[in-house]
Structure formats: C-alpha cells, structure tokens
Automatic annotation (TrEMBL):
GO MF term list: endonuclease activity; nucleic acid binding; zinc ion binding
Short name of one Pfam family: HNH
The keyword Aminoacyl-tRNA synthetase is assigned to this record: no
The name this protein goes by in its record: HNH endonuclease
Limits of the HNH domain: 44-81
Coiled-coil stretches: none
Keywords: Endonuclease, Hydrolase, Nuclease
Length: 127
C-alpha cells in the first residue's frame, strides 16, 4: 500500500474517531503537537498512527474498515510485546482495564508555553 493511501486512511480514521485513540481513547495530534498544546519533545506518544486491525502480513487490506487511528504509544506497546500481538479487541479491553485501575502508564505531556495553545485533556473519550 502506498504511503499516500495509508495517510489518507489514517486521516479519515482520526476524524471518524473524533481525534481519539482507538485503544486508550485519549486525544491525539495529527499534523502538529500544537493541536494539543504540547511541546514537540513530549508529544510523540500522542501522535496519530494508522493501525491495521488485521495486519498486512496476515492478509489485512488497506481499506477504511481495517485501519483505525491509534496513538503512537498504544500502537507501539501492542506490537513490542514479547508475545504475539493480541487481537485489537482484546488489546483495547486490556488498555481500558489498566487505565481504569490507574496502571496504564502514560508519559506526562509538557504543555507549550504559547498562550494560544489549547491544553490537552488527559481523560479518555467516552465510548
């Protein structure tokens, strides 16, 4: 799949999900950390990524129904596990349970100094 196509699917998923991560429900930024009022150095975990629900290596297609928007942190943690990545639904439940218990460790965002920046609300969206 071309990068242009994947970018288009990521943007579509971002807007369909109201800018919130598929797994943790926290707000993400799409084009610039300024969207959340974050300093660039602390913004990477909240960057929007395209997540294939069925991986391409497993036959997943690059279509809207198979691509969701996930924050960089959730995407990375799902795939950098010592065991095979859990299904998207299982991982979403895992993340939500850990968040409810206060055990999903998130890097603390550093807000930009600009008075124009809108501060990030670190509460998951209601699903």
């Amino acid at each position: 799949m071309s990068n242009k196509r994947l970018k288009s699917l990521r943007i579509r998923a971002f807007h369909a999900q109201a800018g919130c991560c598929f797994y943790c429900g926290l707000p993400m930024w799409l084009a610039s950390p300024n969207e959340l009022g974050l300093r660039p150095r602390s913004a990477r975990p909240y960057q929007c990524t395209a997540e294939h629900l069925v991986a391409q290596q497993d036959g997943g297609k690059g279509v809207a129904g198979n691509v969701v928007a996930a924050c960089h942190l959730c995407n990375q943690r799902r795939h950098k596990r010592p065991t095979p990545a859990p299904s998207p639904d299982m991982y979403r439940v895992h993340v939500q349970k850990r968040m409810a218990k206060g055990k999903w460790k998130l890097p603390r965002p550093r807000l930009a100094v600009s008075g124009h920046a809108q501060a990030i609300t670190m509460e998951p969206s209601v699903r």
